[in-house]
Amino acid sequence: MEEKLKIKLSIADRVYPLTIDPKQEEGLRKAAKNIDQLAKKFEQNYAVRDKQDVLAMCALQFASKIEQGGINESENNKAATERLQALDKLIYDKLGSE
What we know:
Layout: E1 5-11, E2 14-20, H1 25-45, H2 51-97
Antiparallel strand pairs: 1-2
């Protein structure tokens, strides 16, 4: 059993202490860095009242990317399934005509 790792992540000028599995560290640090960078971008480009608004905007941005990715994947799977069914029909028709 792996030892837990204690780390501190800084997001929007606040420090969050976490106890994690060591294999999670890289992903969490990258995620915190991405959130922090996006928060700074929102603060610079928009009239934002407070950090909570900035973090809400960040959450919306990341969640919408995840949701859109799922929608795109679903559409791609549907298109691939339709192409495979058409190919299957062509093969079946070709083998049936010989």
